[in-house]
Amino acid sequence: MPINYQEIYTQIQQVGLGAKERRKKKEEAQELAKSLLDTYSSQLDFLRSKVDSAKTADANIRCAVPLDEALASHYPAPESAPATLIAADGSQIVPNRHEALQYYVINVGAIAMQMGSGNTPDVETDTELRALDEFDDTHFSDSQVALMRDVAERKKLLEMAEKFSGTIIALTEGQLELWGAVDNENAREFEKNLQDYLNALGAMQRKKIIVGGYVDKPSANWFIKLLEIAATPQDELKNIRKNRLLAGATDYWMFSQILGEHERSAIFALQAKSAENYRGALAIHFFYLNVGSSKYPKIARVDVPQWVASNLSMLNALHAALIEQSRIMGNKQQFPYILHRAHEIAVVTHREKEEIDQMLSRELLSGGGEIGEKSAKQSAKDLKGRTGR
Question: pTM of the full predicted structure?
């Protein structure tokens, strides 16, 4: 049966009825956030002290930590300089217990561009397939395969960087922190992937590569949480994650107010329990960047390791490169071209998955192996004429 549009329409009407009140609350939160920014922008020692208190009260709190720049600092885009830009992106096919063939694929695409050289970009693709069977005792969940993909991206950046000299900027889309649920079932695998990831970052640091993780339209409100911590009385910090004083205000909105065309923000450190895995030169920092205009801001968050955050020439090179790359995509997209190309190179299509299925089936049968059965559910979904999930 089709979707029950009458039920949906009734629910949509309820959303509409509450829109005016939600807008009012958001505007009130935004005004308060502006006021708190004015009050605390230069009170850096106080802010760091409050974050330390919040961390003591709640070890899992995630927020921005100011360093030595006022919160409202903003810096114009520097002139671009010759550099080699490298970007890597990955996609995957995850095991599906309903399919006849059990395997995963990690496909990493990478592109290197020597800016201003006129040279054709270098493009490479690495594809890893692992077939699974009843003898495998490792559970490869969607998140586990995604972890391995993230590590593979970083290793590919390092591999391609070996071919070039001079200023090298290595980019991935998404946060720099390796993310994944850690439970008893995959804790050991996560730790292994994390160590591989840290080793790759460490090698990049030794080679003085400028590393960045580009987060388009960031949803994590680490800066807003810093302002909430600043305004929360000391004895109430234990409830800071639940006390949403500035609910409705976002980092995206705040930095659309602070940053002019192509400007970047101050540098912040990340307070997070998981970020404690990244120590010394690998410690995670970040800044916000307006790749749009003053009238039509488009805010990104750029994650960088400490060795980049503490080096102004590296920051300027990264800042200039991201603005230049975003210009290539035009006024509407405003997304780094090289990251867009890396995604195009890496993506695995449905047709390619079908071809992998056919190749793997032929090899298994010719080698005297067996092919499993699809589940009844999957067979029903695959019936000709069936649509939807």
Answer: 0.91
